[in-house]
Design a protein that fits this description.
388 residues; mainly alpha; Growth Hormone, Chain: A; 16 helices; globular
Length: 388
């Protein structure tokens, strides 16, 4: 929850901070795309590290690195500093994201796992709600204290530094957690063949993430810029809108376990993903701010309700000693294509704005649901002996 609160601040304000320094959209796209690119190459080594040192310690290291990266970004204006701390942010995200799912999986059983993943995601989203609300007014508060313009570099810098201080607090609850008893010995000889077997199942698990990452990376990280440029929204209104998005995401996530019990995890994921597409169209093509905002809120709620369900499903399809590898592969596939599409998106925005981005995302979301249907619904072969 503490990390979600802090990330709400940087999520809303980092793009504006980069633009306020005087950089173009292509640079913004580069800096947004760097962390996912790092995750693509570092996920497997970080997954192995999590197995070696324990996922609890990996989470603590990741939280420390993320705090340092946010502070460094807030103090940087030169390109070299922004790139260096964006890379560090990528390593921190890798440790946190690769270690989180296996840590929760080894602390839960099948009967409670869907609820645990959903509640964890919802709690972070609700904390994100508070962080985004604060992010909307924080530059104004900093500006009033320092006597500068609310949309100045100084105001945004002070706001992101505040987020870094809040993120540092997330290390404290981790110190109170226990090292769980695991189903395998971490000191066992590492065998690559075992970690990646069976390859067909792992491919099916992470290929949909490849496709959806490409669609999401082209658009989602830049929706704050979309609303500011299309509707001329101020920071405080943007903070309010993005905060309500996190609240809607949290509420939708709580419905995940009920859907999974009735329809199964994968069918529920496919259903909510397909249901989000009409709202994505409303978001991108409505000329009325209120309707576009409705599309923004409901698209995010439906798409993100699927995340914990699919993660829990993936963790159940592999053995305990493979969870780090499976989590790493899923993060690589999602973040790698997200990075590439973010790079491309920055350049496309300079040429054609957002007109080309919405069709890309819509097609990718549709393709993801089709892949999941053919992999896990139509062909119901149980390659691991575990069902949905």
């Amino acid at each position: 929850m503490m990390s979600g609160f802090a990330l709400g601040i940087i999520r809303l304000l980092f793009n504006f901070y980069v633009l306020s320094i005087g950089y173009e959209s292509s640079v913004m796209g580069l800096l947004v795309g760097l962390p996912p690119l790092i995750i693509t190459f570092a996920a497997i080594p970080m997954g192995i590290l999590g197995h070696r040192v324990g996922f609890r310690l990996a989470l603590m290291i990741g939280a420390g690195l993320m705090t340092t990266a946010m502070l460094g970004l807030s103090l940087s204006s030169a390109m070299v500093g922004l790139i260096a701390f964006s890379i560090l942010r990528g390593f921190a995200m890798t440790l946190l994201q690769v270690s989180s799912a296996p840590f929760m999986a080894e602390n839960s059983d099948v009967g409670e796992r869907t609820h645990l993943f959903s509640v964890q995601f919802a709690s972070r989203s609700m904390a994100n709600f508070g962080g985004l609300l604060l992010a909307g007014v924080l530059p104004g508060i900093v500006a009033a204290l320092l006597g500068v313009d609310p949309e100045s570099t100084t105001a945004y810098r002070g706001a992101i530094m505040t987020g870094a201080a809040i993120y540092a607090l997330s290390i404290l609850p981790l110190l109170r957690t226990r090292v769980p008893e695991t189903a395998f010995d971490r000191r066992m000889t590492f065998r690559w063949k075992e970690m990646f077997h069976p390859p067909g199942l792992l491919l099916k698990l992470f290929l949909p993430q490849v496709v959806i990452g490409f669609g999401a990376g082209a658009l989602v990280p830049f929706l704050n810029v979309f609303f500011k440029t299309k509707f001329d929204m101020g920071d405080s209104w943007l903070g309010l809108l993005f905060a309500f998005q996190s609240g809607f995401m949290a509420l939708a996530t709580f419905s995940g376990p009920m859907l999974a019990e009735r329809w199964g995890k994968v069918r529920s994921v496919i259903g909510v993903q397909l249901s989000s597409i009409p709202f994505l169209i409303l978001l991108g093509y409505s000329p009325i701010l209120s309707l576009s905002a409705v599309g923004f809120l409901l698209r995010a709620a439906l798409m993100n309700a699927a995340n914990p369900l699919y993660t829990a499903f993936a963790m159940e399809q592999v053995s305990a000693k493979q969870r780090g590898t499976a989590s790493a592969l899923m993060q690589m596939s999602w973040q790698g294509t997200r990075s590439i599409s973010s790079f491309m998106s920055g350049a496309l925005q300079e040429v054609s704005g957002f007109s080309a981005l919405f069709p890309i995302t819509i097609v990718m979301y549709l393709s993801t649901s089709v892949l999941m249907y053919f992999f896990f619904v139509r062909n119901r072969t149980k390659t691991t002996g575990q069902g949905e």
